[in-house]
Design a protein that fits this description.
Order of helices and strands: HHHHHEHHHHHEE
Strand order of the largest sheet: 2-1-3
Number of helices: 10
Number of strands: 3
Oligomer: single chain
Helix content: 55-70%
Radius of gyration: 23 Å
Structural class: mainly alpha
Distance between the termini: 36 Å
Strand content: 5-15%
Length: 294
């Protein structure tokens, strides 16, 4: 299909996210190869790279916005070079096609074979952009799982959704998060094996928690321990460093089509959806909650 052009100041959120993921994965692949971790290198340079490409392409098709030519060509070049130690013949074929296209467009002259190409140029990835993209990717994945588990959908009838957002935790949960952060940092960015007994001692000895709340805080602490193992110390942040509502609103058309929803409404803190008299999940920072209606 058609590709669009434009300077970086015209990039959409998904352009920025895809380009930033390329930087992240090129660097990660380099580190894997240097440490002789070839299986991990293949995972980064092929599987992770093509998965994020598929997300970018899906967004482009559903939103009717052509992919950015410069970013797509960079993706192809990086894929060919980073995979050349593993599948050199395929990589060289892709490199030849790129070279011919570049010559036809009177572009910069390339070396004749991928084996002579330098490692792809990259800049240190932007951690803020990666956090935003990870949030968006996980939101879509979790929303699809929620829809699959929901039995109230009517056959042949489009469903709409309120998406409830939170940017900070309640005060008592912040106490638990701060405790976990101190333990995590003091233990060289890892949790000790006796974390749960330490957490129980903290919760039982804290007058801020009532008897009923202590069990809830223990469950919350155990959940955030698991989240931290997966996402690192960012999972323990008491507030988000980016505007999740803005990201979702900018990509509302893609969200509706991806989740097959008739309409979506994003509600931040202080905003509430009409009460349907059912028990609601409570949103937490980075974990929006979907409330469906017909």
């Amino acid at each position: 299909g058609l590709l669009r052009t434009g300077t970086p100041d015209t990039y959409t959120f998904m352009d920025q996210a895809f380009n930033n993921e390329i930087d992240y994965l090129v660097e990660a692949t380099s580190q894997c190869y240097e440490n002789m971790l070839f299986r991990d290198g293949i995972h980064r340079s092929w599987f992770d790279m093509t998965i994020v490409r598929d997300t970018y392409r899906d967004w482009s098709v559903k939103c009717g916005i052509p992919m950015h030519q410069g970013i797509i060509l960079r993706f192809i070049e990086c894929l060919a070079i980073t995979m050349s130690p593993i599948i050199p013949h395929w990589s060289d074929m892709i490199w030849t096609v790129l070279t011919e296209c570049n010559a036809a467009n009177a572009g910069e002259k390339r070396c004749s074979s991928v084996v002579h190409a330098r490692w792809p140029a990259y800049v240190p990835f932007d951690r803020s952009i990666r956090k935003q993209f990870t949030f968006f990717r996980d939101f879509l994945r979790n929303s699809r799982l929620t829809i699959m588990k929901t039995k109230s959908f009517k056959a042949g009838q489009k469903t709409s959704a309120y998406i409830l957002l939170a940017s900070s935790y309640e005060a008592k949960k912040i106490l638990v998060l701060n405790f976990l952060t101190n333990i995590y940092v003091a233990n060289d960015n890892a949790f000790p094996t006796n974390l749960i007994p330490q957490l129980k001692e903290f919760v039982d000895g804290n007058e801020a928690f009532s008897g009923a709340e202590k069990k809830v805080m223990m469950q919350f602490g155990a959940f955030m321990r698991d989240e931290t193992k997966e996402r690192g110390i960012d999972a323990l942040a008491t507030e988000l460093t980016f505007d999740q509502k803005m990201i979702l609103e900018e990509n509302a058309a893609f969200i509706k089509l991806s989740l097959d929803l008739a309409n979506v409404t994003f509600l931040g803190e202080g905003e509430s959806a009409p009460d349907d008299k059912k028990k609601k999940d409570v949103p937490v920072p980075g974990k929006p909650v979907l409330q469906f209606y017909f």
